[in-house]
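Appendix B. Worked example

We walk through a single record from start to finish. Start with the input: the chain for ATP/GTP-binding protein, Corynebacterium curieae, length 63.
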Amino acid sequence: MESHGEPYVMRHIGSARAQKYYVCPGCNQNIPPGVAHIVAWPRDVGRQGDDRRHWHRHCWERR
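Next comes the structure step. The output line below is what the pipeline stores for this chain.
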């Protein structure tokens, strides 16, 4: 997946694995525990990078 010309890694987080609150960068609204969503990060930073962001699925798809 690419965003603004930069390659991204994207993973689906199922509702059972969604255990914390996050703020979606697409809409600045909460993603509460128990809500399936997307986590994405630039490919070059690796999985543990601070650039991981949690998105509502519809926000990720329309960005």
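Two observations about the output. The chain has a mean pLDDT of 88. Helices lie at 57-62.
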